[in-house]
Amino acid sequence: MKHKSKAGKARAGAARGKQTKASAPAAPKQASVASPPPLSSIREQIDDIDQRIHDLLNERARWAQQVGLSKRGEGLSTADFYKPEREAQVLRKAIERNQGPLRNEEIVRLFREIMSACLAQQEPLKIAFLGPEGTFSQQAVLKHFGHSVRALPLPAISEVFEEVQAGHADFGVVPIENSTEGTVNHTLDMFLNSPLKICGEIELRIRQHLLGKMRGLQKIARVCSHPQSLAQCRQWLDEHLPNIERVPVTSNAEAARRARDEEGTAAIAGEAAAEVYGLSVLVPEIEDTADNTTRFLVIGRKLFSASGQDKTTLLVSAGDTQSPGALHRLLGPLAANSITMTRIESRPSRKRKWDYVFFIDVIGHAEQPPLQTALEQLKEASTLFRVLGSYPAAVL
């Protein structure tokens, strides 16, 4: 047997070492993560953006002032400055171009406040609503018109109509229906004799809270609220406060006032009422349905142009509503022209017993086909026909 020389062994070992190193997997490289810029640099960027936003806001306000000067030169009033169809178009465009991270609801709220502040450069709108302060009606006013208006709380829906009709308020906001409890009949009945028009709609998510000064539910002797709110929380009250007196009052704000002033009284109302009357939220969101929403109408003295996504509200009657096919004759032109009806309510006409009128909501603007054609035919089939309003559908 032949033995390898020491030199040969050394060469063989070196070769094996090279093979081992070549076949071993390469060590993983650490990913290079760019370190964030210093906080001071980020703040400088935000300050620069804020400056540009500020400059643009003031530029927009200056152009709004020019609009006001132009309209005043034409002899127009403050209410003529407000264009609900234009505002609806601005908000829809804002939603279309929104890429986040801000949600659509936040974008709409920001742009509403910008438009509200710019419009107030001309003169703040005066908006009447069903008060007092702290009601959901006030929240609806601020959601729709922004915080740069003069909100005028009134004690009754009829007084809201009267103030707008007399010109003491530019517009009014009144509740019309709730998704849980249905129609506010008093509002519908006001349109029977009022010349006012519907200029817009507001959909407000209603969150009912149990408010009070006490520390626990065991200290509650009675619960006050508007009848609609009591009804919207019926199941919760039955389960948690079954033997407690329920006291209906004229508004949730009145309930909050009583909860502030009376020992043992709790109220069902919104967060705004808690802030205004200094109450604690004992139990939040006690409404029976998670999507509890109230729809409000904006009332004014004239009709507005189309916005592109509109609703129309009609007041119609077929005369003898007891005759066979009376309602079919009224609805026929809508069906024939493929008009979508979203709501219909009957109310006593107050002319004679068992005589009714119908309030109908449809999709479209009264001055645009195919609804325009349908309304011409409907007018011929009706003994009473009025367009109460064509207005932008609620934007969020």
UniProtKB/TrEMBL annotation:
Per the record, the pathway is: Metabolic intermediate biosynthesis; prephenate biosynthesis; prephenate from chorismate: step 1/1; Amino-acid biosynthesis; L-phenylalanine biosynthesis; phenylpyruvate from prephenate: step 1/1
Please list where the region (Disordered) is annotated. 1-41
UniProt keywords (A-Z) are:
Amino-acid biosynthesis, Aromatic amino acid biosynthesis, Cytoplasm, Isomerase, Lyase, Multifunctional enzyme, Phenylalanine biosynthesis
Q: Which Pfam families match?
A: ACT, CM_2, PDT
From the Swiss-Prot or TrEMBL record, state where the protein is found. Cytoplasm
Enumerate the SUPFAM superfamilies for this protein. Answer: ACT-like, Chorismate mutase II, Periplasmic binding protein-like II
Which Gene3D superfamilies does the record cross-reference, listed alphabetically? 3.30.70.260, Chorismate mutase, Periplasmic binding protein-like II
Every copy of the Chorismate mutase domain together lies at 33-126
Start-end of Low complexity biased regions: 10-34
EC number(s) given by UniProt: 4.2.1.51, 5.4.99.5
Q: Name one GO molecular function term.
A: prephenate dehydratase activity
NCBIfam families in UniProt: CM_P2 (TIGR01807), PRK11898.1 (NF008865)
Described by its record, this protein's role is as follows: Catalyzes the Claisen rearrangement of chorismate to prephenate and the decarboxylation/dehydration of prephenate to phenylpyruvate.
**Official protein name in the record:** Bifunctional chorismate mutase/prephenate dehydratase
- Name its species: Steroidobacter gossypii
